[in-house]
Structures are given as C-alpha cells and as structure tokens.
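Notebook p. 47: complex prediction with 2-acetamido-2-deoxy-beta-D-glucopyranose.
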Amino acid sequence: MAENLGIEKTFVANVFFWFLLISIQATNAGHKDGGFNQKLEVEKLLKKLNKPAVKSIKSPDGDIIDCVSILKQPAFDHPKLKNHKIKMRPSSYPKGGDDILEKVDMSSKSTPIVQLWHQSGSCPEGTIPIRRIKEEDILRANSIQQFGKKNFKSPPFRSYAKAQGSQEYATVYVRGDDRYYGGKATINTWNPSVQFGEFSVSQIWLLNDDDVANTNTIEAGWQVNPQLYGDNTTRLFTYWTDDNGKTSGCYDLLCSGFVQLDAGVAVGASITPLSIYGNQSAQAVMKLTIWKDIKNGDWWIQYGPEKVIGYWPSALFSQLSYNATVVEWGGEVINTRANGQNTATQMGSGHFPVEGYGKASFFANIKIVNDKNQMVSPNNILTSIDRPNCYDIKPDYSDDPKWASYFFFGGPGINPNCP
Ligand SMILES: *[C@@H]1O[C@H](CO)[C@@H](O)[C@H](O)[C@H]1NC(C)=O
Ligand SMILES: *[C@@H]1O[C@H](CO)[C@@H](O)[C@H](O)[C@H]1NC(C)=O
Ligand SMILES: *[C@@H]1O[C@H](CO)[C@@H](O)[C@H](O)[C@H]1NC(C)=O
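Predicted complex, structure tokens below:
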C-alpha cells in the first residue's frame, strides 16, 4: 500500500515536471528571437540548400566543397524553373571580341581559374562543386530571411541619384539610347582589408532599370565579404535580382536560380593567385564575360577564354529577359560609418589610381555587346564617383592596343582628406 502511494507520487511529480518543461520551452520560443523555432528554420534552410554530395572536399580555407549531381543543384527548386531543361553550353556567342589583351604581355598572367579547394581534390564529371553552407554562415546574417541577400539595397541608378549613406562607388558605365546584351573585362585581383558587416567588390554589373523600383541586375566579379563568407579571403561571386533585392535573387548558389555548370569552378569559393603590391610582374587578373544568348535569352558567364561557369535563365527576369540599360565596371564598398567616420574598408588594392600599374587596381579590355550581337569597345563612357578623396577612379578610354579601354580605381577609405 505504502509502496503504491510512493509510485503515484513520483508519477504526479513527473507529470508536473514535464508540464513545466514544455511550458518553459513554449515561452522561450514565443518570446526570444531565436531558440527552438529558429533552430528548426536554420536546419530546414540547410537541408534545402545543401544537396546530397557524391563526394566532399575539404579546402585549405576551411570550406567544404560538395560535388553535387549537376541535375540536383539548387537552381531547379526555383518555381519559374520547374520545367526548365538544363543547357550544357550556350547556343550563341557574341561576334568579334577578339581579345587584344590575350595577344600581349599581360596574357602571360592570365592563368586558368585557380581556387584554393583545387589543392585538395577535384569533382567528377557530371557534378558541380558547391560551397557547403554551415549553420554559422546563416547565423551571421542579419536574419534567416536575409541570408545570401544584400543587406544594403542599391539606390536607384547612380547617374541620377548618387549613393547616400552606406554604399560608395568608383565605377565607369555606359547608358546609351541603345540596349546592351553583354559586357566583359579583365579584372585585377586583390585582397583589400574589410571591416565586419561591410564588403569590398570589384565587379561587372548589367542592369535594366526600366522599372526602377524593380531594377533587374546581374553582377559578377570578386569580393571580400566577412559577414557572408566568415573570412577575409577574396572570392569569385555571382549575384542576381529581379526586384532590386527586395525579395528575389541572392549571391552565388545561396538561393535557387543561377545554374552552375563547370566541374572546376565553384561560385563563392576563394581564388588565387592575387596581386602583390609594388611588383609589376605579380599582377593577377580574372577575365569575365557575360552575354545574352540571342536564341533563348539566357545570360551566360564565362571565366577566361574557355571556362563557362553557368547561366541565369531568362525566365528569372522581368526586364533583363529583354535587354540591359546599363553596363558598369568598377568598385563598391559598404561604409557603415561605425565610428561616425568613413570606414577603413579598402577598395581595389587599397591604393589610389594615381599610383598606376603594379600598385593601383585596374580593369582592362572593357567591352560591351551591342544590339547587333557584336563585342565592341564602349563609347561615351561615364564615371560615378561618390567620394574621390576616399575611393577614386582614373579612367583612360583610349584604345591603347596593349590595354584597350581600361582604368585604375580604388582607395584606402578613411584618411585625412576622407574623414
Ligand atoms: C577581417 O579583417 C578585419 C579587418 O582587418 C578584422 O578585424 C577581422 O578580424 C577579420 N575577420 C576574419 C574573420 O578574419
Ligand atoms: C615579383 O613577382 C615575381 C613573380 O611572382 C617574383 O618572381 C619576384 O620574386 C617578385 N619580386 C619581388 C621583388 O618580390
Ligand atoms: C528592352 O527591354 C524593355 C523592357 O525593359 C522592352 O520593353 C523593350 O522592348 C526592349 N527593347 C528591345 C530593343 O528589345
């Protein structure tokens, strides 16, 4: 009898204990931003983005590269790509575009794309390398919804509305009566110093702002972005949006949309070699070409003379599915003015353009694709410089046969003339 009573007491106590525990958990989930629900949401996103790997490679920079079947990549989760038939190669190329630069001296530096993870292995045919997303990558974002997206919305195109606040640009661009169908450049690669929560990019933009509030952009180049990637290495990146970054699009393969094709190139992975300041024979470059496939409207991106990285299907866009209104080249940094001053985040090599080759960062051989599908040097190039004492640009549009259209750009950020 007495024993039975003991058991009953324990039972009651146990029920009470569990009731208490469940109440506490429910309270936590309800009140705290984070906790149980957040963990579930992070796990769900990881499961969605990290596709089953055929093989995994540990890169020296700490990344894990998953070799994922080309048909199982995140792109095909996009609702607009439900019935998309993957294309393995472009069906059209722009005409001309003979690279003067390939024939002259800097070509010796135009090594094939090298990414740090290549030191640890390669992905088999039929798969593509994808940088695995870790829980901490998502937790570094301002929110789970914000992961992989830009924290700073681009202002309406800068020729008529200079960036206010967070972005600072030093770029050249074309914005003519004609529409554009591609762009190209040889981009000098560096490792600028960047504050957490900010980034420094050197890139090509193609944009269509016929509907300004929903500006469509395609962007690619290199960037240092500690909040996004968790370190300060220089990485190849791609970006797209169909609505000025409001809800659609993202960097790399951090959402569905961009179709990656090459077994050797992972968007979002670190690149090497980088340029060495003060050494003219140690200037590294990446050559990027983006163009519209005139047969089906997809936008392709190629690295160097032969490596097709992948494409943005035409179906992703409302305006870029037709054409681009602007092609732009150069640098952008985020300046959060954390101490009420300009940031120390550097652009380009972190040195002003006046220092020239070997010290200042450059773009060379900039080209556009015109409405006759020809790759040509751009005319009527304009500049967009927000604070020349912080980050500047020194354009030279002469068709110097050695460089074609080129410019130096960049800067150190905060200094006595850039408070
Ligand atoms: C990146 O560089 C900044 C500025 O030099 C430094 O404060 C930060 O600790 C570095 N971050 C990482 C993850 O290495
Ligand atoms: C400049 O770079 C070249 C090529 O990487 C290298 O061989 C040379 O030693 C470097 N010179 C100096 C002064 O560091
Ligand atoms: C360019 O794109 C716009 C949509 O942004 C479209 O209305 C227009 O017809 C296109 N122009 C040409 C020449 O294709």
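Notes: Residues 53-410 form one domain. Confidence is low (pLDDT under 50) at residues 1-13, 15-32, 100-108.
Next step: compare against the earlier run before touching the bench.
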